C-alpha cells in the first residue's frame, strides 16, 4: 500500500522566516500537531512524538516542500517539525546588503545553526532531534554545538570523496566532480536547474561541492584543511539509511564511510532494499516521496520517538 493512499490529515504548515547572523532570511515551514481542542480528541499527549521537535535539513538544491509529506506524517505522530531552504535556494534568496555569497560550508555552519537556534527558541520545552538528507546529514559535522541535537537520522547521507564509490561507478563520479561541476561554475557562474533536476546552485555552493568530492580531505576549509572536530565531537544517537539501489549519489559504501567520521556517536547503518518494501526503486530521493511504503516512515518515526 502506498503512502499517498493513507496519508493522514494534518494542519497546514506555518510559514516562518529565519534570520541568520550574517544577513540571510531563510524561508521555513513549521508543522505543529493538532491539539485536543482542534481535533476534538483526547490523548494527544500520548502520541509517540509528543514533546519532541524535528528539524529536517534538506539535500543539495532540494526545496523544503519536497519534505512536506514526510513532515505531515511526523506531525500526525505528535512531532513538531521544521523544514527550511538553505541560502541561495528556493525561498531563501532574500539577504541584507553586504551579506556573503552563499557557500556549501555556510549551509552547515550558519544556516543549520540559525534554523536549529530558531526552533529551540520557539519551542524550549521540546527535545530536538534532526534529520539530514544527503548534504543535510553530512554538514552536521560542521554545525556549531551539534550536540544540541539529541539524536540524528541520516537519509542517504554520504562521504562524497569520489574514490569511495564502487569501482564500476567511479569514472562517472569522477567526471561529475572533476568535470561537470567545474565546467558550469566557471563558465556560467553556477549549476543550472536542468543538470540535476534540482534548484539552481550558486557558484560557490557548486564549487564547494566539487572540491569536497575531488579531495580525500572531503569537507575542508578554503586552505584544504579537513574540518573534523564536529564529526568526532558529536555524541548522540545516529541512524544512517543507505538505499541499496542508490548508485549515483549515495551508494551504501559511501554512507558507511560517513558513519566512520562520527567516531564517538552511537551509530548504526541500515541498508534499505526496495524489495523489502514491495517497491521497484527507492534510489536517492525516493524515501521522502509519498509513494514510499508507510512502514519505512513508521520505523523512522519510532526511532525518533525513542529516548535520547
From TrEMBL:
Q: Please give one Pfam family short name.
A: Hydrolase_4
Is Ribonucleoprotein set as a keyword in this record? no
Q: Note the SUPFAM superfamilies from the entry.
A: alpha/beta-Hydrolases
For molecular function, the Gene Ontology terms on record are: aminopeptidase activity
Q: Does the keyword Iron-sulfur apply?
A: no
The UniProt entry, under Gene3D superfamilies, shows:
alpha/beta hydrolase
- Supply the alphabetized keyword list: Aminopeptidase, Hydrolase, Protease
Q: Ranges for the Serine aminopeptidase S33 domain?
A: 54-139
* Record's protein name: Serine aminopeptidase domain-containing protein
The source organism is Bacterioplanoides pacificum
Amino acid at each position: 500500500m502506498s503512502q499517498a493512499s493513507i496519508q493522514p490529515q494534518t494542519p497546514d504548515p506555518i510559514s516562518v522566516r529565519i534570520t541568520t547572523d550574517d544577513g540571510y532570511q531563510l524561508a521555513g515551514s513549521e508543522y505543529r500537531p493538532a491539539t485536543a481542542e482542534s481535533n476534538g480528541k483526547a490523548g494527544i499527549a500520548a502520541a509517540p512524538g509528543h514533546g519532541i521537535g524535528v528539524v529536517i535539513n534538506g539535500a543539495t538544491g532540494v526545496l523544503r516542500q519536497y519534505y512536506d509529506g514526510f513532515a505531515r506524517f511526523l506531525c500526525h505522530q505528535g512531532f513538531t517539525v521544521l523544514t527550511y531552504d538553505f541560502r541561495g535556494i528556493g525561498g531563501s534568496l532574500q539577504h541584507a546588503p553586504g551579506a556573503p555569497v552563499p557557500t556549501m560550508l555556510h549551509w552547515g555552519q550558519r544556516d543549520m545553526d540559525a534554523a536549529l537556534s530558531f526552533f529551540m527558541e520557539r519551542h524550549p520545552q521540546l527535545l530536538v532531534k534532526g534529520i539530514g538528507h544527503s548534504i543535510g546529514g553530512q554538514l552536521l559535522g560542521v554545525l556549531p554545538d551539534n550536540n544540541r541535537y539529541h539524536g540524528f537520522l541520516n537519509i542517504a547521507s554520504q562521504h562524497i570523496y569520489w574514490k569511495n564509490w564502487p569501482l564500476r561507478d567511479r569514472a562517472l563520479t569522477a567526471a561529475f566532480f572533476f568535470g561537470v561541476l567545474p565546467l558550469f561554475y566557471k563558465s556560467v557562474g553556477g549549476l543550472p536547474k536542468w543538470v540535476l533536476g534540482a534548484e539552481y546552485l550558486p557558484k560557490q555552493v557548486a564549487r564547494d561541492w566539487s572540491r569536497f568530492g575531488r579531495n580525500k580531505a572531503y569537507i575542508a576549509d578554503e586552505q584544504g584543511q579537513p574540518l573534523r572536530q564536529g564529526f568526532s565531537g558529536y555524541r548522540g544517537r545516529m541512524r544512517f539509511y543507505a538505499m541499496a539501489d542508490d548508485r549515483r549519489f549515495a551508494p551504501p559504501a559511501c554512507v558507511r564511510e560517513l558513519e566512520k567520521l562520527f567516531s564517538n556517536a552511537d551509530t548504526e547503518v541500515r541498508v534499505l532494499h526496495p524489495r523489502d518494501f514491495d517497491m521497484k526503486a527507492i534510489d536517492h530521493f525516493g524515501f521522502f516521496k509519498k509513494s514510499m511504503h508507510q512502514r519505512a516512515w513508521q520505523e523512522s518515526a519510532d526511532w525518533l520517538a525513542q529516548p535520547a
